[in-house]
Specification:
Blueprint (H helix, E strand, L loop, with lengths): L6 E3 L9 H11 L3 E4 L16 H10 L3 E5 L15 H21 L3 E4 L10 H22 L2 E4 L13 H11 L4 E6 H6 L4 H8 L3 E5 L18 H10 L5 E4 L10 H12 L5
Parallel strand pairs: 1-2, 1-8, 2-3, 3-4, 4-5, 5-6, 6-7, 7-8
Helix pairs in contact: 1-9, 3-4
Length: 275
């Protein structure tokens, strides 16, 4: 039902291991595609500079791995898409542009993004305007870099902006740029009480990427540790002819001690459905 190349391993839960260890673990698990989190200690990225991409490309090539998606940190670090103060906004804009520069060097086709968040004590529409302005500028820059932006929704605990499929549609409609598209995060989707079918009914071919993980619905879990139905989710993707990547955004700290073992269990859940 899915091709092996669609499953994109991520390195967030390898925070306490080297980049080489992560890449070796992906190759050992049979992963061929990487969604890269360019965060320290694996990769340094700021609004001014970033690590040597030639080194990273060699590490990938040596293991027959292909990097297709870049996902700059935007929840834990100070950079975000609806940054409130002028200095934060300008430096966040520079940071996300640098992420696309690095992504272009690394061969990425997609950069995963979201709406950011506004102050809880300001009018939501004021923060929405900042997010729309930021995403409009980033979409134009993405066009220059040959990259498409894929915007996900967030949980209400993370944002007061785009937390539903209708919010994502509104932002895409208002920015109205061919390089700004949508992505499904199955955790945020589940928390909102939505389904894969609903997302495709609303956004259709504008959905170009997914963070495809198990959940309760909270949590970013490996498959089998939550309550989602993997087979039914994959059938939904087939119904809508989705052939994009399935990013394995595994962020629960329970996996950080032995991430390679978690990935092996995760890929084992996929094996019956790989064609």
């Amino acid at each position: 039902m899915i091709k092996r190349e669609q499953i994109a391993g991520m390195n967030i839960h390898y925070l306490f291991y080297s980049l080489e260890y992560f890449l070796d673990a992906q190759a050992a698990a049979g992963i061929r595609t990487i969604e890269f989190w360019p965060g320290t200690p694996h990769f340094f990225l700021s609004y001014l500079e970033y690590s040597d991409c030639k080194r990273v490309r060699k590490l990938l090539n040596d293991r027959n791995l292909t990097l297709r998606v870049i996902t700059p940190e935007n929840c834990t670090y100070q950079y975000q898409f609806a940054a409130q103060e002028k200095e934060q906004f300008e430096k966040s804009l520079g940071y996300f542009k640098k992420a696309m520069d690095a992504g272009e060097e690394l061969g990425a086709e997609i950069m995963a993004i979201n709406s950011g968040w506004g102050y809880w004590n300001e009018e939501r529409e004021e923060a929405w305007k900042r997010s729309r302005e930021m995403l409009s500028m980033l979409a134009e820059y993405a066009k220059e870099r040959g990259i498409r932006l894929a915007m996900e929704s967030l949980r209400p605990q993370e944002s007061n902006l785009a937390t539903t499929v209708q919010d994502v549609k509104r932002m895409l409609d208002e920015v109205n740029h061919p390089n700004l598209k949508a992505m499904i995060d199955t955790t945020a989707m589940g928390v909102a009480g939505e389904t894969i079918d609903q997302w495709f009914d609303v956004l259709g071919e504008d959905i170009i990427h997914m963070h495809f993980i198990d959940g309760n619905p909270y949590g970013h879990l490996i498959w089998g540790d939550g309550t989602h139905d993997l087979e039914e989710f994959l059938r939904a993707l087939k119904r809508h002819n989705y052939m994009g990547y399935l990013g394995q955004e595994i962020t629960e700290f329970d996996y950080f001690n032995n991430p390679a073992a978690a990935d092996l269990r995760n890929i084992k859940a996929y094996e019956p459905y790989i064609i």
